[in-house]
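Record asparagine synthase (glutamine-hydrolyzing), 570 aa.
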Amino acid sequence: MNTDFICISQNKITEASGHFMAGKQWLSYRGETTVCEDEQGVLLLFGYVHNQDFNATPAYWLNLLQHDNEQLLAAANMLDGAYNMLLLNKSTGHCSLITDRLGCHRLYYYQSADAIWFSTDLAYIATKAGPSHFDRYGLMETLHFRWLTGQHSLFENVKKLPHAAVVQLQAGKPPAVEQRFGLLPARKTQADKTPEAHADAVQQLLCTNIASSVKQTDRVAVLLSGGVDSSVLLAICCQLKLNVIAVTPVHDNHSNPELETAKQFARELGVEHRIVPVKDDMLEPLFCDTVQRLAGAPRSHSAISLLYIMRQLAGEFDKVLYGEGADTLFGSRAVKHFTRRYQKHLKLKRLMRVLPGSELIVRRLPSGSRFKKLADFDVQQDTISSIKLTLQPATEMALADDVRLDSSAILRQLNTDSAVFTNFDSAVRYVKQVVFSSDVVNHFFEMSRLAALYDLQLVNPFVCWPVMYYASQLPDEYYLGGDFVKPILRKIGEQFYTPKLMYLPKFGFPVPHKHWLDTSLNKLSRQAVTFFNVPEVWAEDTEMIWTLTGLYLLAVRADMAPCRLTNGVN
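=>
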């Protein structure tokens, strides 16, 4: 099968299946594409948009591009799906690209002297760039961060376009990002409502989004972890009378703490619940396949299980509903802990201002002391820590220092609108945006990529724009909650399930990746240690060895030479 691509070049590309002239340059493309043309221009849609009222008229979008930024961003925010929308203006020859809000249809590119090539297939673009070598900065970023955040890829001379962006394209020149969208709105003062009223409003918004994204004829699978988010989605699908089942993986030698809870959710709704066993002897081929499909180390440990689930759903289902993003919107423990640290910092600073000599005392405290940490608290540094890999200190110190990662530069690459924290609300909003632009976006990229392999479409009900906007306006008491986060979603769940079930301890979506590295993936992990010439002690660092094992497989498939990661390692 031929790889899909877009090319803006000074010459016509013969291997393309379609061509348009863009001023003095050629727009060439290949792949499954929706093509719409009118007097003003051409619209090419790669991937899919869920919205049933999607306006695919080129003139509509070209007029927004030319005249009204606010309306353009509003229209782009409302689109849900995994897509890239390319617009060619016939009169000016200008070529613009709008990338999807969640990076589900990620585009990589390589720029030569007379052309710029784009594709969702990183390996294909890497062949255009010549012999394969690791991009040093992209490699080090991957080793430091759970989620690849910047515009680098793992291949030298290959970059990636940012999500939620309006980009100008021209042959022989780097893509020019003109605008970003998808930012969480600032919180506005609003009349307070009861928890029940908030729950009713959110439930209606979720119903509207799911109804506009899923047809009554679609066969739907909900990934049911046993947590709050997926159980609410399953209940609303039943409320809408969709043709739906629940799916939950189970793993050898691992007791999923929420499996019985997931079973109870399905029983209370009377929904078919498929338990998908993921056996240890499947792990090596599944891991290898996941690395090949993602062209990199899977950043979500659960990607391995989810690839297998997609394979089981293939041919029988049309849509897969996934609850990712709800934590950040409706009650994240990580954000809750950030707010507590920030509030304590503000209190301490106020106290220090009225206590003579307190600043000198704090400066003399040991670096690890609680009061010194609170006094030196910095929003940006605390935020960057939240998206870094949890590495053992010895491993982190051993990483090569020839490429230094500037935390401020990393944060600037993310989809955030301001690093100025004038108040508590703006600081919390910034943290949420960083998490969205790294954690949530990469989750959806991996999920969408794996689902698309089997002609399945991923639906993300919690991160549709109306729900995001409403959640951003919730008062702290309904975001942070008391003993339980996500109080509004739990309140929705109480309408469908035994209330006690909604308040059981929740453990997320755990997978036994450490067990896999010690058993099924042990041979590959040992080969990765040799390939990258790293100390044996690194094999004890689960997060590092997981990443290295994926990078090793990528390197083997791309015929890369062995790579030394650290200085002075024999």
